[in-house]
Amino acid sequence: MSVLFDGLSLGAIYAMIALGYTMVYGIAKMLNFAHGDIIMVGAYAIYTTMVFWGKGLWVAVIGAAVLCTLMGILMEKLAYKPLRGASPLAVLITAIGVSYLLQSLAQLIFGVTPRPVNLGSFGSVEILGASIPVSTVLTLVIGAVLMAGLTLFVNKTNTGRAMQAVSEDRGAAQLMGVNVNFIIMITFAIGSALAAAASVFYLMQIPLVEPLLGSMPGIKAFTAAVIGGIGSIPGAMIGGVMLGVIEKICLSIDAIKDYTTAIEFGLLILILLVRPIGLLGKKRREKV
Amino acid sequence: MAKRKSDFKLKNYVCYILVAVMFLYALVLQMMGKLPKSTSNLFVQIAYSIILAVSLNLVVGFLGELSLGHAGFMCVGAYLGSYIAIALTSHIESKLLVLLISMLCGGLAAAFFGFVVGLPALRLKGDYLAIVTLAFGEIVRTVCKNLPFFGGAMGLSTVAIKYDTRSSTSLYIVAFITVFVVLFLIQNLVRSKHGRAITAIRDNEIAARAMGINVTFYKLFVFVFAAFCAGVAGVIFGHFNTPVLYSKFSFNYSIEILVMVVLGGMASINGSIIAAALITYVNIALQAKLTGDLAALKYLIYALILIVLVIFNNAPRLAPIKEALSPKNLFGRLKKRRPGDVSDDAGEWANIPTKIRMDEILSTDVRPGNEFVPDKEKKAPVKGGPNDG
Predict the structure, then answer these.
(1) Domain locations in chain B?
(2) ipTM higher than 0.95?
């Protein structure tokens, strides 16, 4: 039971990161490799505000959110915008470069040793006979709220509909008066803000900050996004939760514990083999 | 017909010359007895880096797909090849023969995995392939880390097959000869009809398919071949370094190979050779100095190389600046041209601004009464056909 809850809360974190991936992929048509490292930036922002400046958790969370959002916008403007219209390969390599840039800068500034950061303890509650930490419940509830809010935003507001239009057909959207550059910027901002939220919940589970903190969750979240069908918001949620639960279940069985990473990525390859568009993805026909 | 003056073009052989210079330099050093172990090791490392970089360039530069699992294929080659070599070394006397057999086996094993991964992945487009190859690299690493007969977390000890530099055939000689063979294969592949098919797929996959090119076959072929080369490089690595440890073949190493390719220039074999040698040399030279947190400086530089070079080479807005700075424009006027010379202008095609794009041709529709008629057929009745005479 507690394994399931652990899995769900890890899955919620993955889902939050995967949402950022899937939105950027759907709208800007690029794989933002540096998305995982935005989480790391958020974690270091929390670390700095709480440990160096001694501020409270809320200040740290807001600070991280603002910093990550700015970082996402800056990244888009400096590295990706000049390449709009260039080959996807060039954009992908640049994204890998940005990811490495953030990691190595973090290592040069803060050092490679993991640093502990204490978000405070929340105690635990009893649910269905199992003792569940409040942080897990918090992750699940806030994660669900954020995702519901995002779905509403994309479907009900003008900006959200403009996003859908850009993801459908960039050229046509531009002709209809949608400011494509602005929409892509907003997408990066929202994705990065979600990454900041993910960093808070990540630190609740593993209270250590290190430069490579974001890279593995980032790759796994992308795996989740692909499993769920890239470009689809509910797909990212389902994929993320699925992957989180599978990871925790694998880790709880001794015989296959060491192969967890291999199993997760094997699942990705299997899904791409059987259903290349992912669970909820839409098939797109390629046109000349 | 008079034979053309000469079909020999020096620029087709630059890559061999580059490697030969390094090889001869090492040989001369050895004959003079001034080849310490560290230098000999450096040459081995340069050799397998060249194999890795050139084969990755075939995938990234020529085929236009991003593979982030090159280190994973190398890992397969290193573990399996070394394992086979250790098993064989008690049965076969000749060390060279063991090395050759294990190189072949390691390469084939890596090629097999390249096939297995490539088959589903190549049906997908760029980003998916990148992530699947990345996932593959991680899977291989995790599996090699946990298999008991591969030494588990301690790595596979290859002391039994490790080459001693004092023996008559040093490893770097074998390694450099392998480089020559790989270069010969890739150079001839790229210049052949198949090479043109591969670059056509990179430039426009749909148009290439319309021209009757078997896209899946070529993609898979290039992918498997590159995996084979990476596997061979892995076997050389296994014979030079002990133990073969899974942590070497991480994502970072795949990126390091990618940096070599990007620094050397996409689809430039000569560039890859130079960049591979340079990065390997600088890495080893700075290894002792950049310890601890300063080691991140290396990745910072890698990151900057990737970002700056790729944006400079690909950004649509920077194209005029790039044009102005190209060697042709900077040094082109220095070359004197004799009026009688007819030069091969194939290289200048890229500079012609009104280049016809394949997708424009395919989207042009033909209206009735406005059909495209080739010039020759129009003139044919005027001039008279061959039947008249």
Answers:
(1) 13-287, 295-330
(2) no
Helices (H), A157-282: 158-168, 170-175, 180-205, 215-228, 233-252, 260-274
Q: Which residues of chain A carry a pLDDT beneath 50?
A: none
Average pLDDT over residues B150-155: 75
Interface test with chain A among B67, B299, B308, B313, by most A beta carbons within 10 Å: B299
What number of other Cβ atoms are within 10 A of residue A117's Cβ? 18
**Does the beta-carbon distance from A25 to B127 stay under 8 Å?**
yes
Look at A31 and B117 and tell me if their CB atoms are within 8 Å. no
Q: Using the beta-carbon criterion (under 8 Å), do B307 and A89 form an inter-chain contact?
A: no
What tokens does A61 get? 């969370």
B262 vs A25, A93, A108: nearest CB: A93
Q: What are phi and psi of A116, to 5 degrees?
A: -75, 140
- Measured CA to CA, the distance from residue A198 to residue A13 in angstroms comes to 5
pLDDT digits (tens, 9 = 90+) for B241-286: 778 888 888 888 999 999 999 998 888 899 999 999 999 998 888 8
Half-sphere exposure of residue A168: CA atoms within 13 angstroms, side-chain side: 11
What residue spans define the domains of chain A?
2-274
To the nearest whole percent, how much of chain B has pLDDT over 90? 22
Specify the higher pLDDT residue, B157 or A174. Answer: A174
Q: Does the CB of B142 have a partner CB in chain A at under 8 Å? A: yes
> CATH says B13-287 is which class?
mainly alpha
Interface touch B66/A30, C-beta < 8 Å: no
- For residue B206, the chain A residues in CB contact (below 8 A) are 286, 288
Q: What is the pLDDT of residues B162-206, one digit of tens each?
A: 766 445 457 888 889 999 999 999 999 998 999 999 999 888 888
Of B117, B127, B363, the CB nearest to A92: B127
> Could you give the residue ranges of the DSSP H alpha helices within B95-192?
95-121, 126-146, 171-191
Question: Under an 8 A CB cutoff, do A82 and B136 touch?
Answer: no
- Interface check for B115 against chain A (CB to CB < 8 A): the answer is no
Q: What is the pLDDT of residues B289-321, one digit of tens each?
A: 777 777 788 888 889 988 998 888 888 878 788
| 8 Å CB contact of A97 and B303 | yes
Please identify among residues 234-293 of chain B the ones whose CB lies closer than 8 Å to any CB of chain A: 251, 255, 258, 262, 292-293
Size of interface A-B (CB pairs under 8 A): 150
CB B263 within 8 A of CB B279: yes
Query: B234-271 burial string, b = 16+ CB within 10 Å, else e?
Result: bbbbbbbbbbbbbebbbbbbbbbbbbbbbbbbbbbbbb
Q: Which CATH number fits domain A2-274: 3.40.50.2300, 1.10.3470.10, 3.60.15.10, 3.30.450.20?
A: 1.10.3470.10
Judge: B139–A265 Cβ closer than 8 Å, yes or no.
Answer: yes
Looking at residue A208, its pLDDT comes to 86
Whose CA is closest to B98, among B114, B115, B110, B81?
B81
Which of A32, A74, A104 should we substitute to test contact with B (largest number of B Cβ atoms within 10 Å)?
A104
A287 burial (CB, 10 Å; 0-12 / 13-18 / 19+) is exposed
E strand map for A47-141: 115-116, 124-127, 130-133
Q: Taking a C-beta distance cutoff of 8 angstroms, is the pair A221, A23 a contact?
A: no
pLDDT confidence bin for B133, thresholds 50/70/90: confident
Nearest Cα neighbor of A226 from A85, A49, A25 is A25
* Chain A CB within 8 Å of residue B360 CB: no
A89–B64: do the CB atoms touch at under 8 Å?
Answer: yes
**Residue B385: what pLDDT?**
44
